[in-house]
Amino acid sequence: MRKKTFTLIFITLIILSYSLLMGDNLEETLGALVEDAAISYVDPVVSAFGSNLNGGWFHRVPDAKKIGFDLEIGFVGMATFFTEANKSFHSSGNILFGEDDAEKMTEFMEDDPDLKDYREDVIDAILEQNIPVEISGPTVVGSADENIVIYMPEYEISFDYYDSAVQDTLE
To answer: How many domains does the chain have?
Structure first.
């Protein structure tokens, strides 16, 4: 379990350092969501480990000596009980797409003469949307049979447009 904890913390640190180097875009937003989820995932173990460290692993204080070595052998037992609330986590946030992401999503409009004129309007509409994302699942001490679930609802983006050719035909 320790190996999993340290691996997850290491991965979280890599994601954090990567997100600091990126600009204001989708990767940064997802990095922040992953950070929150990773912290929630390991929180029960980190809290329990800290509590057990404060429980005292020594039997007595050795006598003060100027030069010497004190060795004590014994058994130390630790136990942490986890409630049901510690066995699962839930994290949520919003994704705000950056301009590069919006341009990639609308590249197909560049080749279509009917849609080409509306591409900028669609990009502006995408940039204004905050899309909710939820991450939930078992923590480190949760059930191994459950999976982490990432939920992002289907999202429809609409925009207003004015076609002068259609308007001229109606008049």
So the answer is: 1
Contact 88, 138 (CB under 8 A): yes
Domain interval for residue 80? 2-58+75-170
Please say whether the beta carbons of 164 and 117 come within 8 A. Answer: no
> Residue 123 domain-assigned?
yes
For the segment 122-165, what is each residue's pLDDT rounded down to a tens digit?
888 888 888 888 888 888 777 888 888 888 877 777 766 655 44
Is-contact 109 119, C-beta < 8 A? yes
Distance CA(124)–CA(65), nearest Å, equals 73
Q: Name the strands in the sheet holding 130-138, side by side, starting at the edge strand that comes first in the sequence.
A: 88-96, 130-138, 149-151
Rounded CA gap, 133 and 139, in Å?
18
> Does the residue 67 lie in any domain?
no
